[in-house]
Give the backbone structure.
Amino acid sequence: MAVQIISIVIVLAIVVYFLRKENRKEQKYFGKKVEPDRKEKKILARYKQEYEPISADERLATLDRDKWELEDIAKNATEIVYDHPIPAKSERQNLKPGDLVKLHFMIEEEGETETERMWVQVTGEKDGLFSGTLDNDPFNEILKAGQLIWFHANHVSHIDRNK
């Protein structure tokens, strides 16, 4: 009898755990503010510790001047936990020509800012910024495939060295 009660308590504890976990996922999905758990707090703290702000540079696009700019992924990672972790700082800083990187382009059209994620092929590095060519056909009319893009390591959300 005692074994059955203990078994029931264990099963109930497991069910409650998974129900809470599923509820948390659902709240995040629907955009509700959810307090980070211990693991997420550690991830945020690590990104905060390694974050270095991007210095102003005329080569970087701005919404005011160019009607688009790149999202500072590393800065956002200090505030929100991405579903997929961003590449390590050392990986983002050691890009080589031929690498493909995914960048988040914030594009202003008709008074609204939309985000489009696109691949850029790295062509070089100069004075702390990388250059590359846009490897996608954008949905917008502001950017064009093959266009020169200047970006910082903080802008990189994914790296693909196999293409």
About this structure: Helices lie at 2-29, 38-50, 63-66, 73-76, 89-93. The first strand starts at residue 68 and ends at 70. The longest helix spans residues 2-29.
